Amino acid sequence: MKLSIHIITFLFCLSLQAQHLNDSTDLEPFMDGVINTLLVDEHIAGATLAIVHDGKIILKKGYGYADYEHRIPVDPDKSMFRIGSITKMFVWTSVMKLVAEGKLDLNADINTYLKDFKVPDAYNQPLTLTHLLTHTPGFEDRVLGLFALDSTSLLPLGEILEKEMPERIRPPFKQASYSNHGTGIAAYIVEQVTGIPFYEYAEQQFIKPLEMEYTSLRQPLPAALKKYMSNGYKYSKEFERMNFEYVPLYPVGAASASANDMTHWMLAYLQHGRYNNYQLIDSATLVRMRSEVKRHHPQVNPMLLGFMDISMNGVKVFGHGGDTFWFHSLMALIPDHNVGFFISFNTNTGGGAYEKAFRSFMNRYFPDSTAWEKPIDVTPEWLNKFSGEYEINRYPHSDITKISSLFGRISVTVSDHKLAVSSPQETKYFVPIDSTTFREEFSNEKLAFELDGSGNVIHAYDRLFAIFAFDKVSFIKAAQTHTLVFAVVMIVALFTVLYWPFVALARKNYVRGSRTKQPLSFPSRLIAWMNYFLVLVFITGLISSLGEPEDLVYGISGSLKALLVIPIILIFTTVGMIIAWIGIVQHKTYAVRSRIFYALLCLVSLVALWQLNYWNLIGFNY
């Protein structure tokens, strides 16, 4: 009986999908409930939403406030929200438009198009536009300078790209790792081929023809549009209005747009590249942009040419997300059903809100009709090879922000014949369905793994997010290892700086009579004390400098630059300690425990230097 009811309910839902979308008495109340709940639960000041279906807008609405202080509500027609990396779709569409015109070749070495600088050679393989569009150029990520405090620090696109060229850390096309710099290079190539700044090309080819009156890539915004810009907010017990975010590499995430303008863009993509009488891009090229180019694993979504494949519930979905510090947005297209979905939130706490909103929309109007694959029988021993710590492969490798790699990690453990996959936000459970693929316990979401030639697990892939991978970390890279090292260094440093002098003073003043063993020499104790005092000063200063992590994206402060002198000094003080220890072991008048303790001080200082070097904190790596 229960099975029959489920089948009838499922068929009924399928028959009502189109009707629901066109019925505002169903769609609008449902989305109102979803978004208003998110505004309250996530402490978000405002949101803007637009949904299109079959060539027309079926829902367009503002929620909350564009100006919280003055209670100015969000206007979906005019309120402009920062759309972050959705801006990249201007770049990718521009590239493909020029490819269709024969002005660019997807498989040519991109250095043939670059006039003012070149991408350094590596791995005996040139980079191509295909690599850039699929986020597979093999670049490390860069965080420093991603945002600017004001327009005075903005430089021409070519100067930024040359000055901040990231290292190539893996062969091209081996693995996707979302790349802002790769997108910036693609936009610069568009500039080189067209002979005009990218923002002008985007205005001529997209913004004006699509009648996007409240959309701009310019920074600061043109005077006529400033009054329509929604404020961005930071929430911590109350809403704090934040300044306009300047993005130096502007084609990767600087656009501001209204929800209504985004409907024009979505309709063009859904109508074979055409909006009203304007052909944004030819239909064959649009099909090519949505075609699979590379896939990490057969069970996960593929990489496309520019678009992100965010298919879910067995339904093909293309689009792009976009995040700044204060704005979080999503544009999703469902071409088989002629549906487009755009949403944006204007508060820092909205980071996961657009995914929740879209998933709710999909689960209601496009529920998953695919039967769950049956779990296979496995042993706990077999499952254990998948357990461990995995880090996202998108992080800086060569500068002091490498430590950010600690924040994008997941932990995989075995739990009752399942894998428990834990992130800082939540824990999900996955059951095995084949030798390298796991299904979420109560859905069709997949987690896949890659093995090396010896059968060892080396990578993990989330089905929904094709633009990056997770690398299984070794013991040396594990967060627990570095936490343990840090704890040991701090304990020894505090003991040396605080307790050691106290004990020495107490012995001097209160212990009477001659001692059978001499205390360590004053110079040896002084250099050790200075070494660990500097360790504490550096760690305290670093924690203080990173109190607001978003400040690093604006660049390195003068105080942090000065602080980076200390690790260099620590090299010399550690060498001095080792030299002192050599003298100590040669004198039998020192107590054995004193010699052992000083050896421990030398060893811990060497380990501290190793950790500082691992995180690029020795030298001026910025």
Estimate nothing, just give the exact number of structural domains: 3
Rg (C-alpha, Å): 28 Å
CATH third-level topology of the largest domain: Beta-lactamase
**Net shape:** globular
How much of the polypeptide forms β-strand, as a percent range? 15-25%
CATH superfamily of the largest domain: DD-peptidase/beta-lactamase superfamily
Give the topology, please.
Blueprint: H1 2-22, H2 24-41, E1 46-53, E2 56-67, E3 72-73, E4 81-82, H3 88-100, H4 129-133, H5 157-163, H6 180-194, H7 198-207, E5 215-216, H8 223-226, E6 232-235, E7 239-242, E8 256-257, H9 259-270, E9 274-275, E10 278-279, H10 283-289, E11 308-309, E12 318-323, E13 328-334, E14 339-345, H11 353-365, H12 380-384, E15 388-392, E16 409-415, E17 418-422, E18 427-432, E19 437-440, E20 446-451, E21 457-462, E22 470-472, H13 479-510, H14 522-545, H15 558-563, H16 565-585, H17 592-614
